[in-house]
Design goal:
Elements: E1 5-9, E2 12-19, E3 22-30, E4 36-39, H1 47-56, E5 64-68, H2 77-87, E6 90-94, H3 95-101, E7 125-128, E8 133-134, E9 142-145, E10 154-158, E11 163-167, H4 185-198, E12 202-205, E13 210-212, H5 215-240, H6 247-258, H7 266-279
Parallel strand pairs: 4-5, 5-6, 6-7, 11-12
Antiparallel strand pairs: 1-2, 2-3, 3-4, 8-9, 9-10, 10-11, 12-13
Helix pairs in contact: 4-5, 5-7, 6-7
Bound molecules: zinc ion (ZN).
Zinc ion (ZN) binds at residues 71, 73, 149-150, 168.
Length: 283
Amino acid sequence: MQREIAEVHDGVWQMTVDHGRLRAWSYLIDAAEGELILYDLEGIAGVAHLTSVLKKIGRQPSELRVLILSHSHHLNKAKLRSLHAFANCKVLACLQGRQIMAPAAAPAAAGGDVPVDFSGDAGMIDWLEFFPFKLPFGREMQIVHTPGHSPDGISLSLSQERVLMCGEAFVGPGPADYLPLYTNVQDYRNTLRWVAEQAPEKLLTARYGVIEGRRVPAAVDQALRMVQHIEDFIAESISKIDHDITIEQLILMLSARFGRKAPVGFSDTVRAHLELLRTGRRS
Ligand SMILES: [Zn+2]
């Protein structure tokens, strides 16, 4: 497991964890007056990793004030609990996450959504309901709702500096050899279009690293086209094949068509497209 830290913007550090062939990135932000914000847990291996990262940049665990959970997929509750106990920081997440993660919703959360039960951790997370949510620090920072990949996706915007930390709200296609995973087609499109409107100089992602300058609009455009290609392919497959086609068959066909593997939970993406085609609300 490779662990690095690199300053990717003034007072913004990128942390890396290698999950086998897949890499994930988290971001640490200097909030201006001795406070630090951690955006996301994906690029943090645990307390020892965070300790070594803070030491490398000459900062203290007590300076970490806020941990932002980008969304609820693959959330490692043990890691969250240990980091929370270690740094004693506020944890912020989107209210929709609590609904997804509530035990009652567990049977509905098929595929990639591993439901996390927070019922025994009352008070650990501050659930955000209204966006944009301005963080009360010297540096101008807002948390914005960026659903699509997951209903509870939130991003951290340093709008004056034109830097946007979006976690997995942007899922490629990019260089990874996976099909993009989103659970709501229209929300995902809207989020991508919103990112394009913001025209960030730097888009800091969980799976695609730092996308900069002119590569940002190109990457967002490519991601939007990928959604359209998937939609067109599913629509065409359904119209060509007269017998009932299963979601599993569609996943295999999409995988073969685009030469990419289907990530865990990709059935949610196919289901979302089928629902959209059924209701005829395409755009
Ligand atoms: Zn995710």
